[in-house]
Write a structure and sequence with these properties.
This protein is α/β, with parallel strands linked by helices. The chain contains nine helices and eight strands. β2, α2 and β3 form a beta-alpha-beta unit.
């Protein structure tokens, strides 16, 4: 039996931990049933690298272009113009990763908010969906989204780790929600079992966020802690179990949601 078709909506494939074996990573992803990967851009440089990777694997890879809040000070006028240029590339299917991160505070909070607002405006200008990051900044994050009003494009709260109340607030704003291997972490992710039950199928997507967040439930345990797209099947298994659905049904539903959200044409989902 072939593996169910999966779409990984968030993989940091331009990360240097993949430099030595990126082609092998993609080959393993295909064997594991992955039909598409969205490569995350988190700085101007990584966004350009993500777009280049997507251009080299059309149909299998797409990219996002954005500046993570950790790099907020990078987003001057020149950098913003570069993002605008990248956003014009058909391989770039979303603006982001962008948002707010008050957990690490690697950038001053006013700079984070300014960079976020600029990228919200860029998404509105280009009509591209938003790939969003939020950690310990829920109130300011929601306020920025609400300020966009009816102009807010499609948006996904990537790598959601928050509470059910936060998820419901995002859903009320029209956001989709991306779930990672955080749900497989018995120490800090068990609350997501309840959260994922409350997410409508048409708003739920799956991601690895590799090389980060290797699912702790993988057996046998991998030799390294690097996460990669082939392990998305384990995230799918955990979410399906939480929702009381079959793995095959959840894989198909989340992949179809991702295809609609990012505007992907994936023949594998019509078989």
């Amino acid at each position: 039996m072939s593996a169910p078709p999966l779409v990984d909506i968030g993989i940091n494939l331009a990360h240097d931990s993949f430099d030595a074996d990126r082609d092998a990573v993609l080959a393993r992803a295909r064997r594991a049933g992955l039909v598409h990967l969205v490569v995350t851009g988190s700085s101007v440089a990584s966004s350009a690298a993500a777009a280049a990777l997507a251009a080299a694997e059309p149909g299998f890879l797409s990219a996002t272009a954005g500046v993570h809040p950790h790099h907020a000070l990078e987003l001057d006028e020149r950098a913003l113009e570069r993002l605008r240029s990248l956003a014009a590339d058909p391989a770039v299917v979303a603006i982001g990763e962008c948002g707010l991160d008050y957990f690490r505070d690697y950038s001053p909070r006013p700079a984070q908010r300014a960079a976020f607002e600029r990228q919200l405006a860029l998404a509105i200008e280009t009509g591209k969906p938003l790939f969003l990051h939020q950690r310990d900044a829920h109130a300011d994050f929601v306020a920025a989204l609400r300020a966009c009003g009816a102009r807010l494009p499609r948006a996904v709260a990537h790598c959601f780790t928050g509470t059910r109340a936060e998820a419901e607030e995002y859903l009320a704003l029209g956001l989709a929600i991306g779930i990672t291997g955080w749900i497989c972490d018995e120490r800090r992710g068990r609350h997501l079992v309840e959260v994922v039950r409350a997410i409508p199928a048409e708003r739920l997507m799956l991601e690895t966020d590799g090389p980060y967040l290797l699912p702790r439930t993988l057996r046998p345990k991998p030799a390294t802690r690097r996460n990669e797209p082939m392990y998305l099947a384990e995230v799918c298994r955990a979410v399906a179990e939480a929702r009381g659905e079959s793995v095959a049904a959840l894989a198909l539903a989340t992949s179809r949601t991702a295809a609609r959200f990012f505007g992907l044409e994936l023949a594998a989902l019509d078989r």
